[in-house]
Amino acid sequence: MLRSMLDIDEHIIWEGRPDKVTYVIGSPFVYLFALIWGAFDSVFIFVFLREGGINEMATAFMVPFFLFHLAPVWFAVFGPIYRAINWKYIEYAITDKRIYIASGIIGRDVKLVEFSEVRAPGVQVGMIEKLRNCGSVRLTPFSSARSSGLRRSIQSGTLLHISDPYTVFKKIKQMSLDIQADISYPNAMRPDANPGYNTNYEPKE
Length: 205
Prior knowledge:
7 helices; 4-stranded antiparallel sheet; PH-domain like; alpha+beta; elongated
C-alpha cells in the first residue's frame, strides 16, 4: 500500500512492521491491573449474588454498573483480539525523502514524518520486546512507544516493536542529520557529494 504512495523518484531504504507477538500482547501491566481490578470487583459481585440480588430494582442498577465498571477487564480481554486483526494493516517505510507510518482496519491512516521534523529520536525496549529481540523507535521527544493507543502512536510518530531497532535508529539519525544540515547549508558552500536537498540523496551504509 505504501509503495503506491511514493513519489516517482522516491526509493525505499527500509521497510517493516511490528513484531506480531509483541504487538498483540501489548503492555503486560495492563493484564496485571485488569487482574487486580477484576478481583476487587468480584468480591462485590459475589456479595451481591449471595444476597440474591436484593431486589429487582437493585439488580437493574448493579448489572449495568458492573458491566461498565469492569471496563479495564474487557480492555485486557478484547484488546489483543483487536490488535491481532489490526497488525496486518500496519506498515512502516523509510525512504530517501521521508518516513511513512500506515495503519487502519476500516480506513487507512498514513502518517508522514519528514526528516526535518525528526527531533531527538530514541530507542525504547520493554520487557516483552527484549524477550522478542525487538524495540520501538520514537521520532520525537513526545512520542510514546505504547501499543495500547494505536492512533496516539501514529500521531506521535513511533515505529513500534520493530526488529533490529538500533540499526534503524542509527539510519534515521544519520539521514535526519544529513538532510537537515543540507537544508540549512548555504547553497554556495554545498559539498559536491550532496549538492542540494532536492537532488538524489544516498544515505551511507
